[in-house]
Every structure is written in C-alpha cells, then in structure tokens.
Task: structure prediction
Amino acid sequence: MALTHPLNRKEFGSSDNLGKMMTSSEAIELLQSWVKNDKLVFHMKQVGHLMKAFAASKGYDDLTQQMWYLSGLLHDADWDQWPDDHCRKIIEELEARNQDPRIIKAIASHGPRYFGVEPDSEMDKMLYAFDELSGFLHAYSLMRPQGYEGMEIKGVKKRLKDKSFAAQVSREDIADASEKAGLSIEDLIQFVINNQLRM
Ligand SMILES: [Fe+2]
Ligand SMILES: [Fe+2]
Result:
C-alpha cells in the first residue's frame, strides 16, 4: 500500500542535541500558536499525559519522562494547519529548535503505515500504541454517562469489534501497535483507563 505521508528519511535530528529539550510551557506555547482545534489539543495533551505516566511507571528519571511527554504532546502539532505535511512540518520545527533526536524520531514513527518510518525504541512504540487507542477510549468515554468511570476492558473490546463505532480509528493500527509494543491490548486499555486525563 502506498504511504499517504511519506517522510522518505531515516535520520531525524542530531545526536549533538541529545538531552536537549524544550520546557512544557514552551511546548504548550507552540501548540497554542499552531493548533486552533481544541479537540486536537486535548488529544495531544492526553497522549502526552499517558506517555509521561508510562515512563514514570517504568521508574525513568525526570528528563526521560519529559522526553516521553513532549513526544506525545507534540506528535500531531502540524495536523491542524498542514494536514498534507503531517508530520514533516513538526519534525522540521523541532530540528530547527535543536530538540533531542529521540523525540523527533518518535514523532516520525507514530504512523508507520502513513510515514514509512518504523518505531524502534520503547518510546517510539508506546507513542504509536497510545495514539489511536487513547482516541478510541476517549470516543467511548463520551458516549458513556459516567465517562471513564467504571469503564471495563470488555466494554472497550466490544466497541473495537463494532466497526461502525468511531470508524475513523484504525483497528489495524491498534493491533499492530500492541504487537510491536509487546503489550496485550488488555494491558494497554487498562493503562489508558487508569491514567486518563480529565477534561
Ligand atoms: Fe498523527
Ligand atoms: Fe495522534
């Protein structure tokens, strides 16, 4: 299948910038200037929050947690204004700002079927895994009177099987990401339920 947004690149960022990353407020500022769609901002905050929570659950240090957070928070920053250039635009912006290459690589590989870049590191894989799944759980939470409260794995899986529900969410990507991350769909769903971001 042809890639919809081929990056045609293998290297991202520079190793000179390892450990260099913006503050959370700088990242939020970038989002505010680039993204007018509140739902998209929420999605990125949700994924950033999950990424940070996952890194924290692994006992990673603060700098690493920040790196995971920024990867999630910025991964779709260019989608609102430059959908045809997603995610080339944000990659180039982060390169110009001398950001840690691992953040840039994670963003570049958050949709292997679209960008043609495979997720390699644990951070790459978890960004890929949380991206579609968190959007799906969010859609499910909006149709439940109690939101995420009392949400169960089996209810989520039932909705996943119902192809007409949140039809834009790729079940194929969710299954592929879970396999790549080496985590079961059930464990991923439970993590998202336990660590969701309240609006
Ligand atoms: Fe994306
Ligand atoms: Fe996304």
About this structure: Residues 20-194 form a domain with the Hypothetical protein af1432 fold (CATH 1.10.3210). Residues 11 and 51 are 23 Å apart (CA to CA). DSSP finds ten helices and no strands in the chain.
